[in-house]
UniProtKB/TrEMBL annotation:
Protein name: Cysteine synthase 1
InterPro entries assigned: Cys_Synth/Cystath_Beta-Synth, P-phosphate_BS, TrpB-like_PALP, TrpB-like_PALP_sf
Family per record: Belongs to the cysteine synthase/cystathionine beta-synthase family.
UniProt cofactor(s): pyridoxal 5'-phosphate
Superkingdom assignment: Eukaryota
Compartments reported by the entry: Mitochondrion
Reactions accelerated catalytically: O-acetyl-L-serine + hydrogen sulfide = L-cysteine + acetate; O-succinyl-L-serine + hydrogen sulfide = L-cysteine + succinate
Length: 382
């Protein structure tokens, strides 16, 4: 009798626990986990990043400002998407076979994304990069298995530009080993980059906002993210979603969009890395006329937003991400209250901390005074 009673109590307790679990405060997380399930290898974890509502800026503008948290990709940036798609494109076209080699010219996150993708899929990776980049980036790429060639930093038009050296390296390897194949993935003009965002990022944003998105904005380097997301959102909304370019100093794209197509001489520079352009890439070319405008964002606004996002949102963002957030705020102010504006949080500040939070570096860029007094406590490096 006592034994039966204990069994009944245990069953009752188990049932109660299961019922409580069904009503857990993490019900949303459980639903997302069920939808995600398990993925096949690292590349299956690329994408499906959350949209984060930026509370303070949303309240300031009366809008809903959302950031796509691309720093949560396995390689730490939005470039994981492009890296996967340029490799997939080469596979689909028969240019890469098991044991083949991927070659790219990149100074930043695309190389890191490619390193992860190539290790996961069993390819060799060769990277050409300007020798102006930090030793830390070179070391990280090599740690991830890439063969790295730092070369002199020269203009795109120069045949010794790192991109053209990467192209020649791939052509040489292909002649030497046609059985396995080699490909220059050419992130700037390979429209598989744009396709990544038409097929993944754009649909994710639309689904996550349940179609209630009024505008999108981000900066551009290769043009793939801006072009791909713009194309998808324009198509799915029958043109009602507005799209705006965010541009740093030293880029010609703001003037190009604002002037209706006049490509001016490039001048100046910015603290941001991997964004801003002196030309219209093939990725951007097809969608540049779809843009509804452009915003030129100063380095002063960008660095202040790096610190604001850390202080107000707990988000540890790189300069390109902060520039995008500034642009989202300005788009919200342009549209007025009760609009939803989405941008891209490209990567975190982890690879840039020795500059962004350094008193010496800020002074060297004449940006020390751009940090509000209340945020100076984050300048923790000499």
């Amino acid at each position: 009798m006592a034994s039966a009673l204990r069994t009944s109590v245990r069953r009752f307790a188990t049932t109660a626990i299961r019922a409580a679990a069904a009503e857990t405060p993490n019900a949303y997380g459980v639903r997302v986990s069920k939808a995600q399930g398990s993925v096949d290898q690292l590349v299956g974890a690329i994408g499906n990043t959350p949209l984060i509502r930026l509370k303070t800026l949303s309240e300031e503008t009366g809008c809903n400002i959302l950031g796509k948290s691309e720093f949560q990709n396995p390689g730490g940036s939005v470039k994981d998407r492009a890296a996967l798609y340029v490799v997939k494109d080469a596979e689909e076209r028969g240019l890469l076979k098991p044991g083949g080699t991927v070659v790219e010219g990149t100074a930043g996150n695309t190389g890191i994304g490619l390193a992860h993708v190539c290790r996961s899929r069993g390819y060799r990776l060769v990277i050409y990069m300007p020798n102006t980049q930090s030793q830390g980036k070179v070391d990280l790429l090599r740690l991830l298995g890439a063969e790295v060639y730092p070369v002199a930093a020269v203009a795109w038009e120069n045949p010794e530009n790192y991109n053209w050296q990467a192209k020649r390296h791939a052509e040489r390897l292909l002649k030497e080993d046609p059985e396995h194949g080699a490909v220059w993935t050419n992130q700037f003009d390979n429209t598989a980059n744009r396709r990544a965002h038409i097929e993944t990022t754009g649909p994710e944003i639309w689904a996550q906002t349940e179609g209630k998105v009024d505008a999108f904005t981000c900066s551009t380097g290769t043009g793939g993210t801006l072009a791909g997301i713009t194309r998808y959102l324009k198509d799915v909304s029958n043109g009602s979603v507005k799209s705006f370019l965010a541009d740093p100093p030293g880029s010609v794209l703001y003037s190009y969009v604002s002037s209706g197509g006049e490509l001016k001489e490039r001048s100046g520079s910015s603290i941001t890395e991997g964004i801003g352009q002196g030309r219209v890439t093939d990725n951007l070319k097809q969608e540049v006329k779809e843009l509804d405008g452009a915003f030129s964002i100063s380095d002063e606004k960008t660095i202040e937003m790096v610190y604001r996002c850390l202080d107000e949102e707990g988000l540890y963002l790189g300069a390109s991400s902060a520039l995008n957030v500034v642009a989202a705020k300005e788009v919200a102010e342009k549209l007025g209250p009760n609009h939803t504006v989405v941008t891209v949080l490209c990567d975190g500040a982890y690879r840039y901390a020795d500059r962004l939070f350094s008193d010496k570096w800020l002074k060297s860029k004449n940006l020390r005074d751009a940090i509000p007094k209340r945020l100076e406590k984050y300048i923790v490096l000499p």
